[in-house]
Design goal:
75% helix; mainly alpha
């Protein structure tokens, strides 16, 4: 049975489903941040269980193809080694899964924090969209809005 699943879920198919699969979460975060569906479906642990399962499946595939996991530590050796890693589709798909999960986590945190501080949801739309595409830049933009909206600067929040 697992072989039938692995035949269907090629790297290209996983990439396609990952990109399509996170879109509903982001749409709910951006359009319906205060709804119950957002609270129970997006801001909960559910998306990370799904993405973690995909990540686990990818690790299984990598193990099955005798992937050299120690080679991933070459990314710390320099830009050339990092470039070589990104030429490897196995590394690229695991990195992309990681990138999508971290950005979704940041978007969920932005929504939760903005609700806690009673920040208008329309002020949060742009940081969420930028977080979806770029990640840390959207988080930075939200922090600027947060500082001015809450009228305090705290490095511990």
């Amino acid at each position: 049975m697992i072989e039938q699943i692995s035949d269907f879920f090629s790297m290209e198919m996983i990439y396609l489903w990952l990109n399509i699969g996170v879109l509903p979460f982001w749409i709910i975060l951006i359009i319906f941040p205060q709804s119950n569906i957002c609270k129970y479906l997006v801001i909960s642990i559910f998306p990370y269980l799904v993405l973690g399962s995909v990540y686990g499946y990818l690790l299984y595939l990598l193990y099955q193809f005798d992937y050299n996991f120690l080679n991933n530590f070459n990314l710390y050796l320099g830009m050339d080694e990092l470039g070589e890693l990104f030429n490897d589709n196995f590394f690229l798909i695991t990195f992309w899964t990681h990138f999508l999960a971290v950005n979704l986590f940041c978007g969920s945190w932005i929504v939760r924090d903005s609700q806690k501080l009673l920040i208008n949801k329309f002020l949060v739309i742009l940081p969420l969209i930028i977080t979806y595409f770029i990640g840390v830049l959207g988080l930075f933009l939200y922090w600027i809005i947060r500082i001015f909206y809450s009228k305090r600067l705290s490095l511990l929040d």
